[in-house]
Design goal:
alpha/beta, binds uracil, 10 helices
Length: 215
């Protein structure tokens, strides 16, 4: 089976997942988007309201900002793969706790990564950093530093786009530059390990043209 077929099979299984309480309070599970053959995978926290409505990761305000940051760093969403630590939106958009993140990610995210075998992972924000690194790591201190995940993948963390959306003034400018440098570092490493791979299409993807509201 090809990587694309294996991921499609996993996505089909994910659609029927009812293994934890989180599934009760959301519209449906939210999987991944992008190119299964990408050497570069972005891991966010979990679906928010817009992601739950559309069934697509990082399609709401955070995703729109991520798309702009990717474009600046010469990448587009169709040429990388975006996914989340957890697959169901927690009620009231609360941050998932470590136990919830582990329970979900061991069942789904780990299997995605096992199939994709990315050369580089970018952890977006603290939840992804705590899961892919360890709970002692801090996004403000450890972003921009390479580490190896338990599954053996090279990973770098950067600020979650939702964090950027809460900043203003000088802090916003500084955080945006940090994200830009982290994304370029990730792309350059992935490029070095997968020479010739195209990380950018001619135009950014318009996710709202590809996904319809599922409510
Ligand atoms: N935040 C995330 O981390 N992931 C999403 O899919 C949406 C918002």
């Amino acid at each position: 089976m090809s990587v694309r077929e294996e991921l499609a099979k996993l996505e089909n299984e994910l659609k029927h997942c009812e293994q934890c309480e989180l599934r009760r309070d959301c519209i449906g599970t939210c999987g991944w988007f992008g190119n299964p053959g990408s050497p570069l995978v972005f891991v966010g926290e979990g679906p928010g309201q817009v992601e739950d409505e559309y069934g697509c990761p990082l399609i709401g305000p955070s995703g729109q900002l991520l798309d702009k940051a990717l474009w600046a760093a010469k990448m587009t969403r169709d040429r990388v793969l975006t996914t989340n630590v957890i697959k169901c939106r927690p009620k009231g958009n609360r941050t998932p706790d470590i136990a919830e993140a582990e329970y979900c990610a061991k069942r789904w995210l780990n299997r995605e990564l096992e199939i994709i075998q990315p050369k580089v992972i970018v952890a977006l924000g603290g939840v992804a950093l705590h899961y892919l690194g360890n709970p002692e790591m801090r996004i403000t201190r450890d972003r921009g530093q390479w580490f190896r995940t338990e599954q053996g993948f090279d990973c770098i963390a950067t600020y979650h786009p939702a964090y950027l959306l809460r900043q203003y003034g000088r802090q916003l400018v500084a955080a945006k530059w940090d994200v830009f440098h982290d994304l370029v570092a990730a792309r350059e490493r992935a490029e070095m390990l997968s020479p010739g791979y195209q990380f950018m299409s001619e135009a950014p993807v318009q996710l709202f043209k590809l996904y319809k509201k599922r409510v």
